[in-house]
Amino acid sequence: MSYDLAVWEGERPSSDQEAGETHSALYEQYIDTDVEIPPTPLIAKFVEQLLQRWPDLDDVDEDDDEYEDIPWSTSPLIGEAAGPYIYFPMGYRRAEEASAYAVQVAAQLGLNCYDPQEDRLRT
What we know:
By secondary structure, this protein is of the alpha+beta class. Helices cover about 35% and strands about 15% of the residues.
């Protein structure tokens, strides 16, 4: 099981409901498709900043102590991004810290961050 976040470019939704609808539409358009769409530069920058704090799983040996501290449940993390949108999983053990950091980075970059478990925008 994982804790997931969705982050995207665009105007800030006016409500959690609107954010959920936007998330669903973006997921269908960019993730639930057979077409590979490269991430936009801003989404790539978001991922780059996350990876400055915790590297991709593929970049650390499984026997290394640092491996257990990596919150991402997938690698490479950028592989979860498409166009102006990323939907990415984290392990529950580090989800609180990692999601708070992701929300902070998203806010600094002017991105929207949505929690699909709680159906709400994160700020």
